[in-house]
# Entry
Amino acid sequence: MKRSQRKLFAIADEIARLDSEQAAVDAELGEHRQIADDAVRDAVVSGREGDRLDAEQSKADVRRFERRLAEIERRRAKLEDARTKLLNRLYD
# Structure
């Protein structure tokens, strides 16, 4: 097998791994968004400092998962670009 073919398979494997990771992070993000919504609602209703702190922490968790999801999408786009360039070289 040619080096370029091995590289193409490695890229495909990494894209598949990222797709799996993206699905897991996306599901986790959905859960954290729901938790954050509940925490914000509790903080508004109770007005307690502890509830406000919990809401802020929950919103920080959402932002962390959103950043992770964006990073996965960035890495996947970079791999897709590399795959396209490799395929163009193979078939030109």
Remarks:
- Helices lie at 3-46, 49-91.
- The chain has one domain: 3-91.
- The mean pLDDT is 95.
- Residues 3-91 form a domain with the Methane Monooxygenase Hydroxylase; Chain G, domain 1 fold (CATH 1.20.58).
